[in-house]
Amino acid sequence: MATNYQDESHLLWGQTLQSAQAWAEGKSLSNQDYKFLTASLELEKGKLQIGLLENRNSHQILPSKRHLQIITILSVVVTALVIGVRQLGMLQTWELQAFDHLMQLRPHEGTDPRILLVTITEDDFKLPEQEHRKGSLSDQALALALQKLRQFKARTIGLDIYRDFSVDPSNADLATWMRRDSSLIAICKASEPKINQPGVSPPPEIPVER
């Protein structure tokens, strides 16, 4: 043939090829007919191989898509689970422990000269102004300490002592100063119902926002 059996449009395939094979059985074909039939068979074989390869690739792609869907669903479920557990406060203890550990790993930054730490020792309990104290610091001793700190024009004074009781009426000036001076802040303690531990209220004279 002029196309040397390379033009696929002139070759046989499918049912036509099968009929030609059945017809050629037991017959003596010419060299040209034999080459024509052989080229058709090669074409049919090539198409079958291409079909098998495409089918195999499609089966390989489907599992990949399925795996991607599974991974996506699992990621969403795990993320939602972690967010839900965190909102319930179940991770709070571990988070605080991790934060505390990271803070301990920080390099020592030295003492800030702008900060003055005033402590209460056992000897302070024996002072005359501590005679009628409640807790670790009486109203009179607190008034004296705050007066001295004001002389140094302290920008902020933090009272790290639990005082959930009111100032005695005999120290009205102290109560008024605690209510009005925005530089004074105090501590309180939140309750923990899960472990049946009550909280500690801040000093009644200090507004809640402080």
Verbal overview:
The protein contains five helices and two strands. The protein is mostly helical. Strand 1, helix 5 and strand 2 form a beta-alpha-beta unit. The chain is rod-shaped.
SSE arrangement:
Layout: H1 15-24, H2 31-87, H3 92-104, H4 139-151, E1 157-159, H5 172-180, E2 184-186
Parallel strand pairs: 1-2
Uncertain parts: 1-8
Number of domains: 2
Give the termini separation.
Answer: 102 Å
Biggest beta-sheet profile: 2 strands, parallel
**Biggest sheet, strands in spatial order?**
1-2
Radius of gyration: 45 Å
| Net shape | rod-shaped
Run of helices and strands: HHHHEHE
Number of distinct helices? 5
Mean pLDDT: 79
Share of β-strand residues: under 5%
Number of strands: 2
Which class of secondary structure composition applies to the elements?
Answer: mainly alpha
Helix content: 40-55%
Quick rundown:
The protein is mainly α. The chain has helices at 15-24, 31-87, 92-104, 139-151, 172-180; strands at 157-159, 184-186. α5 (172-180) links the parallel β1 and β2.
Give the tags.
single chain, 210 residues, 2 domains, two-stranded parallel ribbon, disordered N terminus
